[in-house]
Amino acid sequence: MTRPKGGYYKGELGEPHKFDPTFRGPVHKRGCTDVLCCVIFVIVILGYIVLGTVAWMHGDPRKVVYPTDSYGQFCGQQETPNANKAILFYFNILQCANPSVLINLQCPTTQLCVSKCPDRFATYIDMQYSYRRNKGSWEYYKQFCKPGFNNPDKPISQVLRDEDCPSMIVPSRPFLQRCFPDFITRNGTLTVANQTSFKDGHGKIRSVVDLRDAAKQERTVLSGKVTAMQQGTESGITSLLDAKEVGTKIFEDYASSWFWILIGLVISMLVSLVFILLLRFTAGVLFWLVIFGVIAAVGYGIWHCYWEYSSLKGKPDSDVTISDIGFQTDFRVYLQLSQTWLIFMTSLAVIEAIIILVLIFLRNRVRIAIALLKEGSKAIGCIMSTLFYPIITFLLLALCIAYWAVTAVFLASSGEAVYKVMSTLPDCKYTNLTCDPETFSQSNVTKLCPGSQCTFAFYGGESLYHRYIFVLQLCNLLVFLWLVNFTIALGQCTLAGAFAAYYWALRKPADIPPCPLASSFGRALRYHTGSLAFGALILSIVQFIRIILEYLDHKLKGAHNAFTRFLLCCLKCCFWCLEHFIKFMNRNAYIMISIYGKNFCTSARDAFFLLMRNVMRVAVLDKVTDFLLFLGKLLISGSVGVLAFFFFTRQIPVIQEEVPSLNYYWVPLLTVIFGSYMIAHGFFNVYAMCVDTLFLCFLLDLEKNDGSATRPYYMCSSLRAILNKKNQKRPKETKRGRKQKKEQPKSRH
Q1: 394-449: per-residue pLDDT in tens?
Q2: For residue 532, what pLDDT is reported?
Q3: Is 81 helix (H, G, I), strand (E, B) or coil?
């Protein structure tokens, strides 16, 4: 790199930059950038608010929360006739096995709200027989009939025609607030209430396998997965009910151990803070200990492979090559060959040589990376408030997620109840046509298609708003991604401005401006909302395309077109790489924005060329930082997890009596481990942003300054020592010089 006369410098890439002798860190006199994008962003936010308002006006979350019966009424809704009837009951669950279920996404049988599911086998005909002797049989059976029907003597043919009562009931349990047969597998045989067969109410004996098929079909519709049925799921509902019992126990464990979980998370927060502050002393030790440990482990592997190779060399059949024996499922066969150990030894020797050569030739860059990590720890120690800024980011992200979720639910529940003709006859031409339940009984449909019903299908409408619900959901998703990425960008730019103020202070911490975090946040929000929104929009579009590709891949999982699957896989891979590259570039562009206050494109270009001029330093710093931070996350979550394990398993004698009684000790244990990892991740994200900012400032410092009295280096003394750079001492002023300077008239400028 050359620095021509006149204060210009030029690297291998990019345009020359002019030295600014007044530059002392983040520029304070700056103007608004990317104003057009800022205006568009504000308009989109206002439109998003309008979209949420319209969705709130048309939507009804009750349609999602409560199941709906055949008459469009909610089950379990308070202040309605169904307030105490929260479960949906199918008159004839066997009708759900009809193929039309997969087409119309609705079981073609009357669905009624009930307070509880049946607990016994019974038919309407058997009820009529026993009614003469026992009036109680009708009292039980009629709770599954239409409200107001109270004529147990009505003939079965008329009852089924008028859909007054079900022809049969079977023992059931609630699943997703719907009654499904209570399946139990005993000795490999599927049963319901210890029976393998039942009466269907029409004089036939049916197998419980028919119930299984019908229940599987309806459960598939409820989950929205219209796919090929899988075998061996007879006990699915029972398993889910068992899971409900397990969930209750887990909730009890959380209720009794939440205080100790909170203490564990506080400990992990303190340990994360101490770890970051101590990195100024331990970064180099940790890195070199692990590196030399890896070198020693690989060296031991080489020796072990040589020992195995030499011991097998004289044995018979050990000189057979791998190609001679071909593919073997038993891996131990290959371990009996000397060639296998020779390959292992050669591979490990090559890896060992690469590690040693990389350390020899990149040792100064590794030292620079470690010095920057130590300097990052000092910077966070001077600006401790930066460690708590992720709380603001978390709250903003929670607000975005909540608004998106509520808007999506209201959009999904928009519309009026739509009723459609459901018929079990395959040749009924009225099937799946809309109908009016109030006038359906007087229409010709019931005569042309006997047994057909006008049942609730879904919520929708024919207006322009209802026709574009799907498009509005896509808009909701895109704006949500934009807001989330903008929130993250605002946090990155704010932290970068604070840490840049630390780096460009010549005397640390005396020259650090007051409230650097608040000042940086104000500058980012006041001047650079448009630039941050621009970068966030680019990233959001790529993420939006990736979501669409994932959706298409999910839909095409059963496709047999190999070329389509291959093309989709390539597109997913390309956009994954593009997303990560854009994230990397945006991060560095935001750092340059926080320092110079330029627009997004200029900042991204300057950051890109600056990094390309120092690509090896970038690679080494990135890997060393990632390695140490990942090691720190493992150490923190692992150490707190071990402490939690000994506590919840009562292996700490001093506080054994304080341990709460638990059903599953792994519930609070896994919560503490996961929470500790996430807390460490949040703290280390701030630290990684600090290191990245200091690194870019360090590169700018190297290119802008030469260590003279007028252009001193702002880097720490350890970095100057590694690079053999020195700052010239400013000549001391004499008393006469100070007197003359004091007598000079002040400049008007």
Answers
A1: 899 999 999 998 998 888 777 677 777 777 666 777 777 878 777 777 787 877 78
A2: 95
A3: coil
Which one-letter amino acid corresponds to residue 214? A
Contact 635, 275 (CB under 8 A): yes
Q: What does the block give as tokens for 215?
A: 């229940």
Residues 6+ apart with CB under 8 A from 173: 117, 179, 180, 182, 237, 241
Pair of tokens at residue 26 = 């983040």
* Residue listed under structure tokens 């066969």: 333
Contact 544, 575 (CB under 8 A): no
Q: How far apart are CA 528 and CA 185, in angstroms?
A: 64
Residue 192, strand partner residues? 183, 195
Entry field: residues in the chain: 749
Cβ atoms of 146 and 163 within 8 Å: the answer is: yes
Task: For residue range 278-287, list pLDDT tens digits in order.
Answer: 877 877 787 7
- Please give the C-alpha separations between residue 586 and each of 20, 101, 500, 531, 601, in angstroms, as whole numbers: 25, 49, 17, 10, 10
Containing 419, the helix (H) or strand (E) segment is: strand 416-422
Residue pair 609/618 in contact by the 8 Å Cβ criterion: no
Assessment of whether the complete model's pTM goes beyond 0.85 = no
Measure the CA–CA gap between 216 and 222, rounded to whole angstroms.
Answer: 10
Identify whether the C-beta of residue 715 lies closer than 8 Å to the C-beta of residue 374.
Answer: no
Say if CB 116 and CB 206 are below 8 A apart: no
| Residue 163 CA from chain centroid, whole number | 47
Q: Which one, of 521, 184, 196, 211, lies nearest residue 385 by Cα?
A: 521
pLDDT tier at 25, thresholds 50, 70, 90:
low
**Strand, coil or helix: what is 172?**
strand
| Cβ–Cβ < 8 Å for 74, 571 | no
Structure-block tokens of residue 326: 């071909």
* Among 123, 126, 125, residue whose Cα is nearest residue 144: 123
pLDDT tens digits, one per residue of 560-606: 677 888 888 899 999 999 999 999 999 999 999 999 899 999 999 99
Q: Residue 95 region, left (φ>0) first, then alpha (ψ -120 to 50), else beta? A: alpha
Angle of helix 469-503 relative to helix 529-555, nearest 10 degrees, comes to 130
161-186 pLDDT, tens per residue?
777 888 888 888 887 788 888 888 77
d(CA 234, CA 230): 10
* 529-555 helix and 35-58 helix, angle to the nearest 10 degrees: 50
The number of beta carbons lying within 10 Å of the beta carbon of residue 424 is 17
| Rounded CA separation 683/698 (Å) | 23
Contact, 214 vs 108, CB < 8 A? no
512 phi and psi angles, rounded to 5 deg = -70, 130
Determine the pLDDT at residue 7.
Answer: 39
CA angle 319/324/328 to nearest 5° reads 105
What residue type is 743 in one-letter code? E
